[in-house]
Amino acid sequence: MLHYEIKLDPNTGEEWIETGLRGKALLTTFLLNKGTAFSYEERCSLGLLGKLPMKIETLEEQVRRAYRQYQKYKTNIQRNIYLNSLHDKSETLFYKLLSDHLEEMLPMVYTPAVGQAVKQFSHEFRQARGLYIAYPDADKIDIILNNRTNPDIEVIVVTDGERVLGLGDQGVGGMDIPIAKLMLYTACAGINPYKTLPIMLDVGTNNPRLLRDPLYLGWRHGRIKGPEYDAFIDRFVQTVKKQLPGVLLQWEDFGRDNARRLLEKYRYTLCSFNDDMQGTAVVTLSAILTGVRRSGIGLTEQRIVIFGAGTAGVGIADQLVFAMEREGLTRQEAKKRLWLVDKEGLLNSQMTLVDFQRPYVRDDMSACENLLAVVRNVKPSLLIGCSSVRGAFTEEIIKIMANSTKYPIILPLSNPNEQSEAHPNDLLAWTNGQALIATGSPFQEVVYQGKKMQVAQSNNALCFPGLGLGVVVSRAKWISDNMLWAAVQALTQYTLLHAKGDEEHRLLPSLKNAREVAKHVAFQVAEAAREEGLAQFLPIETYQTLIEKVMWEPYYRPIRPKEG
Q: Which of 409, 462, 377 is CA-nearest to residue 185?
């Protein structure tokens, strides 16, 4: 049963909240709790008088205290735990703090700190959030979804925890990723946190460390697969479609055998996308297009090697082919500009491949059993890493690139940091400062010949929040390739327009500008949906005006007791 309702004042248009909660119950409801910021009138009418210190604080005063507390913690995992604990106590205070220090704190709630949190999920568990749908409860999905806190949901992020970041199968610990992603939907794009829902589909785990751990909180069983898995997923999708027909569903951290298959199966059943594939591809392609402008070598002339031919690597390849087709190449001509390398070497027809890899098979090169052999043969101008193999981009490999290309574009995208294919300091040193770089994880300022510079982070937070906002305001039926291309174009335009002075070398915007980036992306995505006839809501005003109007801001709404 919902214990509160968001209402609008008919005279001012301001939001306020009506609740039947009183006293301690109100202080422990994270969506409503204001702590020391409850007004005297609210304290009297809501059973809070005497339950709080006498001083009534502003949100800004609370933020200053929270930031001082945050600064006392020195490790990433400590800061992650503090911020998540604050999130569980007061949602508004958390988002105000995060928004005020977005560039600094985003790595603490998302990559890389969330990787550590995922691994320690069962040992550091403090507060349940979202919904956990375990396979033994497959016949109760309808009941579980009905148990959500908020009836009106706009965005769901769902995972089965099989392939989390570069960490592999993390079982129920994968739930921290949907929670973190939804934090960014709110912080970066103003998606109302009251209308978001993280979901964990607990289908077991094949991680022996977790299965042996007596504190493991998930279903202690090997992962189900085959028809049983498919039936479980289908029941989940159909239930979501029935209860929340207009929702945007984001697939997150599904395994290689399932990610693309599920996206293609359900892409038009309900509005959904896979951020690991499509979001990564959008941000990476935008970084590449910016790099192409600065390198002087056109996209259709680039020699592109992708190390890591899983869902992310092939998703990037697909977007590159799509972009080159737009520039006049045929699909086959575009594919000839790409060489995809997996752990067994260059993709070829003798390997055991999954369906989505087969379009990128190359049987025209022999003896290319590793990345170095491919680089020696191809002499790429563009090198992308999605392998989770630390240090895979060696000095020898990079110097081969630098000897054949004046401005090599190098994107070590694997995260967290300890799984990155190269450190940007090394890339600059090995290329005499000529490399155009974007990394998957955030690195400190790099130094080359005494000059400090901040390397761009190819972070999906520059894509999915704006993409989701564009879908929400347009109520798009589904997410088309043209909508994804609109997101690429919007992000590239923003980078080129705003990268000036010391940031001229950047391939992507700074995350401190993530909220402005999201607005720009959302507008272009919504317009693309309208042009294709996929938008189910056409506002009287422009989408730009609507976006400004609907974006949720972290401030305390007045709370009044429910009458009767």
A: 462
- Asked if residues 17 and 36 have their Cβ atoms less than 8 Å apart, the reply is no
Count Cα atoms within 13 angstroms, Cβ side, for 354.
13
Residue 296 neighbours by CB under 8 Å, 6+ apart? 406, 407
DSSP character at residue 168: B
Mean pLDDT of the chain: 93
What confidence tens digit (pLDDT) does each residue in 59-102 have?
Answer: 999 999 999 999 999 999 999 999 999 999 999 999 999 999 99
CA–CA distance, 511 with 536 (Å, rounded to integer): 31
By the 8 A CB rule, do 210 and 218 touch? Answer: yes
Q: Give the model's pLDDT for residue 1.
A: 47
Q: Count CB atoms within 10 A of the CB of residue 561.
A: 16
Question: Residue 481: which H helix or E strand, with range?
Answer: helix 481-498
Instruction: Please identify which of the residues 119, 181, 195, 519 carries the catalytic annotation.
Output: 181
Q: Please give the Cα distance from 413 to 388 (Å, whole number).
A: 8
- What's 377-425 look like in SS3? HHCCCEEEECCCCCCCCCHHHHHHHHHHCCCCEEEECCCCHHHCCCCHH
pTM over 0.90: yes
Catalytic residue, candidates 110, 216, 229, 266: 110
Residue in the block written with tokens 């006839």: 533
What DSSP character marks residue 506?
Answer: -
For 194-251, give the secondary structure using H, E and C.
HHEEEEEEECCCCCHHHHHCCCCCCCCCCCCCHHHHHHHHHHHHHHHHHHCCCCEEEE
Please confirm, yes or no, whether 110 is among the known catalytic residues: yes
Taking only the tens place, the pLDDT of each residue in 174-189 is 999 999 999 999 999 9
4 is catalytic: no
